[in-house]
Amino acid sequence: MTKYFIIPAILFFLVSFGNAQEVYFFDEGTDANFYDQGIVDVNNLGGSSFKHTYPPGGSPSLWNDKVPCSAIAFKGNTSLKFNYVSAENGNWKVTIHRKSWAAADISTLDSLSFYIYSETELPKSALPLIGLFGEGGTSELYALADFNNNVPAAEWTRITFPLDTIIENNPGLDFTQSKAVVFNQSESNNSARLLLIDEITAFKSIETVPPVTEFLLKGYDSHVDLSWTQPTAGLLYRVYASFDGGQTFELRKETSESYYLDFVPATAKNSSIVYKLVAVSQNKESEPNEQSTEVWDFSDDELLNMIQEYSFRYFWEGAHQASGMALERSNGNGVTAASGATGFGLMAMIVAHEREYRPKEEIKDRIIKILKFLDNCEKHHGAWSHWYNADTYRTQPFTPDDDGGDLVETSFVAQALVALKNYFSGTDAKSVQIRGKADKLWKEIEWDWYRNGNQNVLFWHWSPNTDFQKNMKVSGWNECLGTYIMAASSPTYSIPKAVYTNGWAQNGNMVNPGRTYYGLEINLARNWGGPLFWIHYSHHGINPRGLTDEYANYWQEHVNTAKIHYEYAKANPLSFENYSENCWGLTASDDPDGYTAHKPMDNDNGTVSPTAALASMPYTPVESLKALNYFYRERGAELFGKYGPYDAFNDSRNWVKESYIGIDQGPIVIMIENYRTGLLWKNVMKDADVQAGLDKLGFQYEVITETKEIENRTDFVMYPNPASDKLSIKLNTIGTAGEIKFYAINGGLVKKVPINTISNQVNIDCSDLKNGVYVVEMEDGKNRNRQKLIIRK
Asked: Please, what's the largest Cα pairwise distance for the chain?
């Protein structure tokens, strides 16, 4: 069982909850290393010590009195680091002001709390003394030990203090103008301590906590997705689960979010689980809300569908809601949108529309919203910038000299535009609008402008301020094959073949033949294969199957590249932790030292990026499914979150980046769909402009005329599901003859019902079935289709 610690609430409210009453003195550092408003009294330490620091770039002689920060935090990204020695002939004192240095009225509040963490058990007598700095000076100091217990090792523990102890006993101070919380030395035995302090808050107590509403559950293979509506801001929520039918419950998580993914114990697989959810404030729980759901072993197809839908959420729930644009990253500033990621997101919308991850009309509305942004934002000769401020529609410089058009990112949008105008072929008003807008934007891209004076090469950037001064030519081999194909395909601003031959292929010098790794030959990629996004981005819409020209067989090149990554992880020549046939895939992603492109034997520091293996699904389906099973079934609690697999992890350095990047989540949705059905390949490759461009450049290629049957489409519909005693099955054809079989989750046949009807509906008595999960199989002599059925009485 996963161990979770009970952590009491951090925000507190009046009984009415009409007006929140809380004042933060600390919730986040100025940066990862220090808190500017945390001041150490360095002149009066005496024989004691307290580790202090100064702002980056500041003068140590002037500002070396700041409290350091730690990346280990109760909430957010940072906490305060108290690293001190308390001597008999000394005294350390730390004053924690609010972020703005502003005073706050806490005169009507009654409690103060913070969270503390110590690697070793901390006796309550070692807790610091505490006071307040208000208008008129600093209060008397009081012992936290009088109001709290010992602090257990390696747990975030809430420390509380009654404010009236200070307010009533310091009449000369004005606490309507409270400026800071003061921590002071309490020991005098030369004890050395390292404490982390977080979420220092003054608040007003409450009596009744309102319960949550709209508590929803959905069971999957290894986890349950829980979501709810918060009754008011600022509460915490405790999730309890029962794996024995509601007889006993255990705490699974306490969170301030309105969702939780519970990865269940192995013993709870293929069973029904009961959950209780309570809102928490001031360590008081609301009335519980109780629901139940089932988890069961997923087929490979169900796993793929799940991973696509979760990754799609990044472009739906995680997008900039006012514009629909894809944010560059989930842990950014909330307004920096990325054009390339938005192109990926538009393709993901097509997948979502086809598979109905959201209502189809809502998806069309979102696409129209995004296209309006792309039409009205600042563009540069029809091309989009790498980044935008999604609030202002203005270019946000990617670097100081990259403040204009980015042709490569534009090409990712262009593939999406072509896919949109071919996929939405209906006569309804929204489809017509999508087609028209997508076609307009596609035709307005001035690809030939980026030749910089008709040179036989495309340039990556153009700036309205510095022209082509960045001087970055787009040449192979990398992720930009699609850039040249889209440029050659333009019906309005096309490039000639010479630009592809001289600029991209470098007159054949792009090819570096005869390199073999693990028995796999590559002719274009860097030694050992290069980062895997190179074989993903261009092929979101350009089908690599059957794609050849005078330089390469691109399908074989990409299959071999992905397999080299796989074999490299198996061999693990650099001895990184957990590299294996299940844990593989290097690409550009976050890593412990920032952001970089990881490659086998080159810039490999042990960082695995799930998108690398998952988006390689068309090339390495068996190997990629192994990775999916590992990332999700074996390590989902660590590596899987609200928007699917996290961006990257490094087991050699015990590091997981619990966040997302748009250009990494998009390929998961798109390339898995291309593996499953070829949906995006079909809608780009059938385009007359794209075919003309490929012909011009001398490509041989395959056009998909029919996508594979979409998995999960069935020849029957069951309702209700979950069912109790009665079940109706609606068949797609009238007069179907055959039988319907019910299998227990362990595979045993438990019920058989013949089909012999002149209607298209069969009504079945299920009163003999016990609560649980069943597989219902319908066979009519030609087809066999299965669906999951839940019986809940």
From this structure: 97
Residue 15 pLDDT > 60: no
Are the C-beta atoms of residues 562 and 623 closer than 8 Å to each other? yes
Give the 3-state secondary structure of 636-689.
HHHHEECCEECCEEEHHHCEEECCCEHHHHHHHHHHHHHHHCCHHHHHHHCCHH
Strand partners, 227: 216, 259
Counts for the chain of helices (H) and strands (E), in that order: 16, 43
Letter string b/e over residues 634-662, b meaning 16 or more CB atoms within 10 A of that residue's CB:
ebbeebbbbbbbbbbbbbbeeebbeebbb
Three-state DSSP at 159 gives strand
Closest CA to 284 of 205, 209, 232, 201: 209
Residue 57 has pLDDT above 80, yes or no: no
| pLDDT tens figures, 436-476 | 999 999 999 999 999 999 999 999 999 999 999 999 999 99
Each residue of 534-576: pLDDT tens digit?
999 999 999 999 999 999 999 999 999 999 999 999 999 999 9
Say how far apart CA 147 and CA 310 lie, in whole Å. 45
Which residue reads 């598979």 in tokens?
355
Is the Cβ–Cβ distance between 61 and 76 less than 8 Å?
Answer: no
Determine if residue 633 is left, alpha or beta; phi over 0 gives left, psi from -120 to 50 gives alpha, anything else beta: alpha
pLDDT tens-digit profile of 668-688? 999 999 999 999 999 999 999
Residue among 563, 569, 573, 572 at smallest CA distance from 618: 563
Q: Which residue has the higher pLDDT, 338 or 56?
A: 338
Q: Which residue has the tokens 């029919």?
A: 706
With beta carbons less than 8 A apart as the criterion, state whether 764 and 726 touch. Answer: yes
Residues 6+ apart with CB under 8 A from 59: none
> Quick check: pTM over 0.85?
no
The chain-wide mean pLDDT, for the chain, equals 91
Enter the CATH code of domain 213-297: 2.60.40.10
At how many degrees (to 10) do helices 300-316 and 621-629 cross?
70
Domain 716-791 has CATH 2.60.40.3080: yes
Instruction: For residue 28, give both structure tokens.
Output: 């986040």
CA-closest candidate to residue 324, choices 373, 357, 364, 362? 373
The β-bridge relationship of strands 129-134 and 180-184 is antiparallel
Please tell me the predicted confidence (pLDDT) of residue 235. Answer: 83
697-701-704-708 Cα dihedral, nearest 10 degrees: -130
Fold of 302-697: Glycosyltransferase (1.50.10)
Amino acid at 52: H
Amino acid at 426: G
The CATH-assigned architecture of domain 22-203 is: Sandwich (2.60)
Q: In DSSP terms, which residues pair with 217 in a beta bridge?
A: 226
Distance CA 248, CA 241 (A): 8
CA distance linking residue 644 with residue 661, whole number of Å: 11
Distance CA 106, CA 114 (A): 16
DSSP run (H or E) holding 423: helix 407-423
Rg of the chain over CA atoms, in angstroms?
Answer: 30
Please provide the distance, in angstroms rounded to a whole number, between the alpha carbons at the two ends of the chain. Answer: 28
Give the CA distances from residue 116 to residues 159, 199, 367, in Å, rounded to whole numbers and listed in that order: 7, 9, 46
Q: What share of the chain is helix, strand, coil (3-state, %, to 5)?
A: 25, 30, 40
Strand-by-strand arrangement of the 749-756 sheet: 749-756, 737-744, 772-779, 784-791
Specify whether the CB–CB gap between 318 and 310 falls below 8 A: no
Q: Where are the domains of the chain?
A: 22-203, 213-297, 302-697, 716-791
Residue 197: strand, helix, or coil: strand
In whole angstroms, what is the distance from residue 420 CA to residue 642 CA? 27
Phi, psi of 309 (to 5 degrees): -65, -40
Do 22-203 and 213-297 fold alike per CATH? no
Q: Give the number of other CB atoms < 10 A from CB of residue 18.
A: 8
Token pair, residue 330, equals 């989930």
